[in-house]
Specification:
Pfam families: PDH_C, PDH_N. The chain is of the alpha/beta class and 367 residues long. Helices cover 46% and strands 17% of the residues. Strand 1, helix 1 (12-24) and strand 2 (29-33) form a beta-alpha-beta unit. Helix 4 packs parallel to helix 5 (101-110) and helix 7 packs across helix 11 (242-265). The longest helix is centred in the middle third of the chain and has 29 residues, at 177-205.
């Protein structure tokens, strides 16, 4: 039976989700809320949604499933608003927030006693692009779509959500909301703090040592890439996961102090072990074997400085889905190859390696 789905928030995530739902359920009616008219108009024009509104409450009673693809504070505010609306009996309410405990707690507090089913969710996919204009039906492909069930999650809720979202081609997984926030504080939230802190430190340092800007190369670029993320979103994430993130900061301070003491003492063995353990631990982690918001698969090609060499390689890769291409030419001290090509999945990476290796004599490195 065709269902009515209401997506509140037609940014990159919400609009891409609408496309994915349409792919497998073309008969479903998709309603959309967005505050700005621009995204509403684009979503309607491109057929992502069937109807649009800037009044959240107006479409909520019509929906069999409501997905709140909004900033964390606004998600909680809309959960409170849903309490006073005449919703369909047994309606499923979900969200797309990057932290889960605050949202799940709010749902359990405000929606208790209502005939609703709530399940927290976090689609771990994204892009540097924003808005409905950047919507991509393949945005979630092979990425984790995490469900954090609540006391209001019915027995069949997750099954219905997986069916609804089957067209996203994501990897569905369940985890407790608090454990989700602990894990993401370490592998997502805290790294953003590190990247931004390193950028701030370098910017101040470069005021007296101008060449620091010029010499910054591959390693620095890779470590600070996520410092370009949207400030409002990350402010909200940190403030909704304070305790766990503060714990990660204190833990890291202690680790930095240990390295500093080893350097101060000239303890060569401890310093060597520090780097060696990190290398072994990174090699053992399945960083590129699983989907996630920052997952990519990188191939480096050491190409000569010749006319059309990059075009030649791209021609070999015709039909292969590329995420990004970067030419590492300013500083070669810490790079694996001059041409860096990023892919969305391991299959495309392996195919590209085979094509380039078989058809050229260039050195190819996978990282």
């Amino acid at each position: 039976m065709a269902k009515t789905v209401y997506i509140a928030g037609l940014g990159l995530i919400g609009a891409s989700m609408a496309l994915g739902i349409k792919r497998d359920h073309p008969d479903y009616k998709i309603l959309g809320y967005n505050r700005s008219q621009a995204s509403r108009d684009i979503a309607l024009k491109e057929g992502m949604i069937d109807r649009a509104t800037d009044d959240f409450a107006s479409f909520a009673p019509l929906a069999d499933i409501i997905i709140l693809s909004l900033p964390i504070k606004q998600t909680i505010a809309f959960i409170k608003e849903l309490v006073n609306l005449d919703l369909k009996e047994g309606v499923i309410i979900s969200d797309a927030g990057s932290t889960k405990s605050a949202i799940v707690d709010a749902a359990e507090q405000y929606l208790a006693g209502k005939s609703v089913r709530f399940v927290g969710a976090h689609p771990m996919a994204g892009s540097h692009k924003t808005g409905a204009a950047s919507a991509d039906v393949n945005l979630f492909e092979n990425a984790y779509y995490i469900f954090t069930p609540s006391s209001l999650t019915g027995q069949d809720t997750l099954e219905e959500m997986r069916d609804l979202l089957s067209g996203l081609h994501a990897r569905f997984i369940e985890i407790d909301a608090k454990e989700h926030d602990r894990v993401t504080s370490q592998i997502s939230h805290f790294p953003h703090i590190l990247a931004s802190s390193l950028m701030e430190q370098t910017a101040v340092y470069a005021q007296e040592h101008e060449m620091a800007r010029r010499f910054a190369a591959g390693g620095f670029r890779d470590m600070t890439r996520i410092a370009e993320s949207e400030p409002g979103m990350w402010t909200s994430i940190l403030l909704s996961n304070r305790e766990t993130i503060l714990e990660r900061i204190e833990d890291f301070k202690e680790r930095l102090d240990q390295v500093g003491q080893a350097i101060s003492k000239g303890d060569e063995e401890q310093i060597w072990n520090f780097f060696n353990q990190a290398r072994e631990q990174r090699q053992a982690m399945e960083i590129h074997k699983r989907g996630g918001v920052d997952s990519s698969y990188d191939l480096y090609v050491d190409v000569p400085d010749e006319e059309d060499v990059i075009l030649r390689i791209l021609e070999l890769l015709r039909g292969t889905s590329l995420v990004n291409i970067h030419i590492n030419e300013e500083n070669r001290e810490d790079i694996h190859g001059i041409l860096q090509i990023s892919f969305k999945n391991a299959q495309d990476l392996e195919r590209a390696e085979q094509l380039i290796t078989e058809n050229t004599d260039y050195t190819v490195v996978i990282k």
